[in-house]
Design a protein that fits this description.
With 310 residues, the chain is an alpha/beta fold. 48% of the residues lie in helices and 12% in strands. The protein is built from twelve helices and eight strands.
Length: 310
């Protein structure tokens, strides 16, 4: 049986890192990797929404993963999102992830066309077959992908022994409960993982059965999510909720910006730690001059919340 304990953690979704010309920055990738390790993070999710994967070429996505793997040197559990909007590119990225030593691959369903469930299963299984040594994580984010992970599709995917987790970013927390129950039935009590996706419900998702979390705001304030995780494991839900409320207020503040959320977070990391991660790739919106106040306020809120942990 696979050891899934390495996935039962706070796992930041890794940000896309660009240089001043908008090209992938390996220096930025390495710096962010080192930063997260220094904060006590044990795993990362590379190439997902936060990694702006749908706006990057296959070769760029390989370059990102190679830089993370080289810098991490085995200190991080690495889950790689390899989904593209065609099977061939997805299979290529899956095989590459296995070659460079990642722990798992993950994918959303194909977007735009609404495919029948058997076609989605074939798409995911093709990736898994290209990386047979790696675990497979289904990424359920229906509000963006346009396709939800149904229980019938999930049951079909559980026939693949490499499927060991769901990253659940749908908003209803009951989905976590359903996927966890079905996963345990198929894999045993300690054989399946469900990740909480929506950062705003980290505590409630964990309370209903999620084993850990993967989130797009973890990297800008990892201290808060690590402390929430610690408190949840100690069954101190009340104190965990206090921190959740602070994290949510920060998220809502960052979302007030005209620029994209990831542009806001990368600018905050630049100001707080000197990390040069660039902006975001078009058509995502970079920061506008009016966003200066939002960035400053969000940074102040993060710093205050971290100070309150001490």
């Amino acid at each position: 049986m696979r050891d899934i304990r390495k996935y039962q953690n706070v796992i930041p979704a890794f940000y896309a890192c660009y240089d001043k010309h908008g090209e992938v920055s390996t220096d930025g990738i390495r710096a962010l990797t080192r930063h997260l390790i220094s904060k006590g993070i044990k795993g990362v999710y590379v190439g997902g929404s936060s990694g702006e994967c749908i706006y990057q070429h296959v070769d760029e996505r390989k370059k990102v993963l190679e830089a993370v793997m080289d810098e991490a040197k085995g200190e991080l559990t690495v889950i790689v999102h390899v989904g593209c909007n065609n099977t061939a590119d997805s299979v290529e990225l899956a095989a590459h992830a296995q070659r460079v030593g990642a722990d798992a691959i993950a994918s959303i369903p194909p977007i735009y066309f609404h495919l029948p469930e058997y076609a989605i299963a074939d798409y995911w299984n093709a990736m898994s077959q290209a990386a047979p040594e790696l675990d497979f994580v289904i990424y359920n984010i229906p509000q963006l992908a346009g396709t939800a992970l149904t229980m019938s599709l999930f049951q079909e995917m559980l026939k693949n022994p490499n499927v060991i987790a769901v990253k659940n970013s749908s908003m209803p927390t009951v989905d976590i409960h359903q996927f966890k129950a079905a996963g345990i039935k198929a894999r045993g009590e300690n054989g399946f993982v469900v990740f909480n996706g929506p950062d705003e419900q980290f505590v409630s998702g964990r309370a209903i059965g999620a084993d850990g979390g993967i989130g797009g705001t973890y990297a800008v304030m990892p201290e808060l999510y690590l402390k929430m995780d610690e408190l949840i494991r100690a069954n101190n839900i009340s104190d965990a909720l206090t921190i959740q409320n602070k994290a949510n207020a920060i998220i809502f503040k960052m979302c007030e910006a005209k620029g994209n959320l990831y542009a806001v977070q990368k600018e905050i990391l630049r100001r707080m730690y000197g990390l040069e991660l660039g902006s975001v790739r078009l058509p995502l919106a970079s920061l506008a001059p009016a966003d200066e106040a939002v960035v400053a306020q969000a940074q102040s809120m993060i710093e205050a919340a971290i100070n309150d942990l001490n």
